[in-house]
């Protein structure tokens, strides 16, 4: 009799599971994301941003970066590498980053300082920055190459920023419906256990739309100080990911619960050295980051940066990076490093942003033109750039891991790249990678993978403590 009851209950539960799977796990019918009605609405939202608003600043980050590059080009303390007629990389003159295979003694460091007519500026793990008062960077590299204890010696490269009922949501935030954010929230709105690190200019730690979403951070430029944003770029990036939704204030972020780890590696001008950026990546990976967003870049590969990226990936972190804003095919780093998700930008019509870099290192695309978000000093601003596209992808990675924290970083990236928006005509991969992200499709795919029988699988997992 007991056996019959068990069999009957099992059949009953399986029947319920089949019905629930059919109704709850059926992929939502793909709407025409770029339908005429949707396009008209997004066009109005963008026009609202283009006109002067007392609430949202319009910040031309592309032009600001061009001005900054010109200043760097004319700064005698900065040197350049010309990759082609257009693209340049910058590094600090008379400095070198050196990585030792064995820790040098104090006596050895004193001898090096005397030999190079300089001093040790800073160290982190096995990497050191040396500055000379008379030798060029090239001469310094030649000097260190003669030392068999040196793993690498390279210039100290400079990285540049790449640029609900909430008050501004309906009127300004075209980007969220363009990637089907709201429908995706029916699958998950995130988890407090999955942390996203914003390695950037820091974050406005007191912003009313962000402060509750921030966890302990790090200032690589001044470790004793908090990672306070004195530029605005990092706060804007963080807001795209995590501005508190549905609080009646400001803008809505893509995640509802995922904490932001603010890591300051860029200064008030939006620039920072490869040494400090790598320190920030190491710190984030060591302090619980599940996703790291890097809205910064340089055209020159860096050994110290590549080592930091490999370190984060070995710790199973999803690393996302902006592709750059020079309309160039020159590979930008860290976006072009193996295993990093390189992100291009699209506009409100799903077209490639005219400034967005391109090439075979582009993995995916996301909104990056006229994006409304939080800004430093408690403000809001509209910015454009691949810097704005990258956090859309980082937020989606955080949501996917919120569904299944056991997914490896490569599995998370695979879900995002194979569930992109479908278009009638194939899009050039050099511009869009695998396509524009689709939050709903990606989250449904992650959910089906975690719970193949839908809510029934969820119930069994909860019941048996799995």
Automatic annotation (TrEMBL):
Protein name: Peptidase S8
InterPro entries: Fervidolysin-like_N_prodom (IPR054399), Peptidase_S8/S53_dom (IPR000209), Peptidase_S8/S53_dom_sf (IPR036852), Peptidase_S8_Asp-AS (IPR023827), Peptidase_S8_His-AS (IPR022398), Peptidase_S8_Ser-AS (IPR023828), Peptidase_S8_subtilisin-like (IPR050131), Peptidase_S8_subtilisin-rel (IPR015500)
Leader sequence residues: none
Organism, as annotated: Pseudobacillus wudalianchiensis
Gene Ontology biological process terms, A to Z: proteolysis
Domain Fervidolysin-like N-terminal prodomain: 85-156
Matching PROSITE patterns: SUBTILASE, SUBTILASE_ASP, SUBTILASE_HIS, SUBTILASE_SER
Family: Belongs to the peptidase S8 family.
